[in-house]
């Protein structure tokens, strides 16, 4: 959108997104709003999408990460306990517990 309010076929520039994110954070009264940037959107979307059940490929299409290793760095905190094999072991009883009985 232009300064005059007209829609354009071009996407927003990095600077425009940066300004919008900072203005939104400041308007919401978020402490430290001056540290927010366009990267804040990507950094927040990936773990939120992971917590909502999105898989790595879906997150990479949206963010757009090119490296699975980098994208996993954003997902890992959200995905740490999902489908964790250790959880099943502890749910069934502590390992070796039956041997000591």
TrEMBL record:
InterPro entries: DNA_brk_join_enz (IPR011010), Integrase-like_cat_sf (IPR013762), Integrase_catalytic (IPR002104). GO terms for biological process: DNA integration; DNA recombination. Residues 10-77 form the Tyr recombinase domain. The keyword Phosphoprotein does not apply. Keywords: DNA recombination. One of its GO terms (molecular function) is DNA binding. This is Integrase. It comes from Muricoccus pecuniae.
């Amino acid at each position: 959108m232009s300064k005059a309010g007209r829609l354009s076929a071009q996407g927003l520039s990095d600077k425009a997104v940066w300004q919008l994110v900072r203005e939104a954070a400041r308007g919401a009264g978020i402490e430290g709003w001056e540290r927010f940037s366009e990267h804040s959107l990507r950094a927040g979307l990936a773990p939120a999408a992971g917590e909502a059940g999105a898989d790595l490929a879906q997150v990479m299409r949206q963010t757009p990460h090119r490296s699975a290793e980098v994208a996993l760095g954003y997902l890992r905190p959200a995905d740490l306990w999902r489908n964790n094999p250790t959880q099943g072991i502890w749910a069934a009883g502590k390992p070796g517990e039956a041997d000591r009985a």
